[in-house]
């Protein structure tokens, strides 16, 4: 049991890739996770299932929980012996009231630590291509808040005094008072022509940036309809953006893409999409539940030594099978001298991860191609084969092998189950905002998408997505259920699926 402690942890600007290793590790250990509005939901995936998650929200003007109650909550959970992670957007000590929380913890004798994070100004600058300092034009940086406490107890900002030459000004929470701030900085002596930028949702797929001058930024921002949360950056360094901007060039930036794989597999596709700038809505329609028929399991493992081939039809099957094997025998050698076949590269990779060679992988990842490749060995007559599958696997492979006079045992090692979606945050976002595209990587996902149509029904303002498929079999299922196939991957791989999506969206724009 880790010691009870409260960690004030910077959650960075949004992109989960921008939190520290320490933050990720602590989220995984937390008994209690306290987070607010600007913390990306993506980070919550790292918690253990039994972690208590407390949302203390804080959209401008609306506090889900008042500051002193948040502090009391931290103290209370600490006294209950918990490891508490208080996640705060950006860095906890930059306009995050982290100072107040730390002070309360210190005064109440609570053991605590502080983990810094990437503050929004640094992220906005990096992701908009604006260096905050530059040898020729900016030798200092000011971080300032534009939001002044209406109760007037907080210190106020003397904007005119901030009008210093060769300085970059980063304004947090400045959107509500931008016209006034711009006017005051000009009155303080800054050139109205000074380049200025506003970066909304920095580091996320929905990032938007507008560039103007100090004088024209308020008008540009309202014309472009940029709203909080956004960072305002004023200074000559903004001029470098013309040449340095990089993030907004990504092909899928600003696109929302729904991914329908199960939770275990969604990550790989999601990270490929995110690398191209997309915002990913995870719709875990399916979950993989390890499950076997005990009799079949006994039989297969009892005869393991007599099989000539073991054939895997999915990476999930590989994972579940080796879990079973190791739980039983505690030693990989119990697999014996079987030859190994995999339906495709992804499945083969999962096998190789156990330091095993895969003897056959067909070039196209279909059951038919796998059957052909096995039959082509010319040695199937009377050969014993075990086919490791899920509960939904098609019979094509087994039938073809039987026709080739092999003796085939089918060994289902997992079940594919539907996930409840009505409260799921990804599904909720999908209903509200819709998506540019929805991607299907298996027939079972297509079917459960249709089954769960009610929980995924788009609201009145939701964007209708185009639909893409990983290959001919999935496409066929889509057509069968009456779904259009707007694009299909050229090869049955995740990369090819992402490429097909980029191409399709690009052609729709053109
Ligand atoms: N502690 C946080 C700041 C909290 S104040 C930090 O260090 O970043 C909240 C303000 O931060 C917002 O009003 C906005 O100005 C800025 N902000 C936070 N996340 C942002 C993002 N992803 N993009 C742009 N600005 C952001």
Helix/strand structural class: alpha/beta
The assigned CATH architecture of the largest domain is 2-Layer Sandwich
Helix content: 25-40%
Count of alpha and pi helical runs? 17
Could you report the average pLDDT, rounded to the nearest whole number? 92
CATH topology of the largest domain, what is it called? Methyltransferase, Cobalt-precorrin-4 Transmethylase, Domain 2
Query: What coarse outline follows from CA principal-axis ratios?
Result: elongated
Q: Give the count of structural domains.
A: 4
Bound molecules: S-adenosyl-L-homocysteine
**What are the segments in which pLDDT stays under 50 over at least 5 consecutive residues?**
none
Radius of gyration: 28 Å
Proportion of β residues? 15-25%
Q: How many angstroms does the end-to-end distance come to?
A: 58 Å
Task: Write down how many β-strands occur, each being a DSSP E stretch of 2 or more residues.
Answer: 22
Give the biggest beta sheet. 5 strands, parallel
Strand arrangement in the largest pleated sheet = 3-2-6-1-7
Report what the structure shows.
Helices cover 33% and strands 21% of the residues. By secondary structure, it is of the alpha/beta class. The protein folds into four domains: 5-117, Cobalt-precorrin-4 Transmethylase, domain 1 (3-Layer(aba) Sandwich), CATH 3.40.1010; 121-249, Methyltransferase, Cobalt-precorrin-4 Transmethylase, Domain 2 (2-Layer Sandwich); 256-285 and 419-509, 3-Layer(aba) Sandwich (Rossmann fold), CATH 3.40.50.10090; 289-417, 3-Layer(aba) Sandwich (Rossmann fold), CATH 3.40.50. The longest helix has 16 residues, at 494-509. The radius of gyration is 28 Å and the shape is elongated. The model has no long low-confidence stretch (mean pLDDT 92). The N and C termini lie far apart (58 Å). The strands form five sheets. A five-stranded parallel beta sheet has the order 3-2-6-1-7, sandwiched between helices. Helix 12 (367-375) packs parallel to helix 13. It is built from 17 helices and 22 strands. A hairpin with a 2-residue loop joins strand 4 and strand 5 (62-63). S-adenosyl-L-homocysteine binds at residues 13-14, 38, 88-91, 94-96, 119-120, 124, 172-173, 199, 201-203, 228-231.
């Amino acid at each position: 049991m880790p010691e009870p402690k409260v960690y004030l942890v910077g959650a960075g600007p949004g992109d989960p890739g921008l939190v520290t290793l320490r933050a990720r590790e602590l989220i995984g250990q937390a008994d209690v996770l306290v987070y607010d509005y600007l913390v990306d939901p993506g980070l919550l995936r790292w918690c253990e299932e039994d972690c208590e998650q407390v949302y203390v929200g804080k959209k401008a003007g609306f506090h889900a929980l008042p500051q002193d109650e948040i502090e009391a909550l931290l103290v209370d959970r600490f006294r209950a012996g918990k490891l508490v992670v208080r996640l705060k957007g950006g860095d906890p000590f930059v306009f995050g009231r982290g100072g107040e929380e730390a002070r309360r913890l210190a005064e109440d004798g609570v053991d605590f630590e502080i983990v810094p994070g990437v503050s929004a100004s640094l992220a906005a600058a990096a992701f908009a291509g604006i260096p905050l300092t530059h040898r020729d034009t900016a030798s200092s940086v000011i971080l300032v808040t534009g939001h002044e406490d209406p109760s007037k107890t907080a210190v106020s900002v003397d904007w005119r005094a901030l009008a210093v030459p060769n300085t970059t000004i980063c304004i947090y929470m400045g959107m509500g008072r931008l016209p006034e701030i711009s006017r005051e900085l000009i009155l303080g002596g800054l050139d109205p022509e000074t380049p200025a930028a506003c970066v909304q949702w920095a580091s996320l797929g929905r990032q938007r940036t507008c560039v103007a001058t100090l004088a024209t930024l308020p008008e540009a921002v309202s014309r472009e309809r940029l709203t909080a949360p956004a960072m305002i950056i004023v200074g000559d360094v903004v001029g470098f953006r013309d040449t340095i901007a990089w993030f907004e060039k990504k092909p899928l930036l600003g696109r929302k893409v729904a991914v329908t794989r199960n939770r275990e597999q969604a990550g790989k596709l999601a990270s490929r999409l995110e690398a191209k700038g997309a915002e990913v809505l995870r719709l875990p329609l399916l979950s993989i539940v390890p499950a076997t028929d005990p009799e079949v399991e006994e039989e297969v493992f009892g005869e393991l030594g007599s099989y000539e081939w073991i054939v895997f039809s999915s990476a999930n099957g590989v994972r579940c099978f080796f879990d079973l094997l190791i739980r039983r025998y505690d030693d990989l050698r119990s697999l014996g001298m079987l030859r190994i076949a995999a339906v495709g590269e992804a499945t083969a990779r999962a096998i190789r991860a156990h330091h095993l060679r895969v003897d056959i992988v067909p070039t196209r990842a279909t059951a038919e191609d796998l059957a052909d490749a096995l039959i082509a060995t010319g040695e199937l007559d009377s050969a014993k084969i075990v086919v490791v599958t899920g509960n939904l696997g098609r019979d094509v492979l087994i039938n073809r092998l039987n026709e080739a006079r092999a003796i085939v045992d089918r060994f289902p090692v997992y079940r594919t189950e539907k996930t409840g979606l009505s409260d799921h945050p990804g599904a909720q976002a999908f209903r509200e905002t819709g998506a540019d595209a929805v991607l299907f990587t298996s027939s079972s996902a297509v079917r459960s998408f249709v089954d769960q149509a009610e929980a995924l029904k788009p609201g009145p303002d939701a964007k209708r997505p185009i639909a893409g498929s990983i290959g001919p079999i999935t496409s066929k299922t889509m057509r069968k259920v009456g779904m259009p196939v707007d694009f299909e991957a050229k090869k049955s791989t995740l990369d090819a699926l992402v490429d097909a999506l980029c191409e399709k969206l690009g052609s729709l724009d053109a």
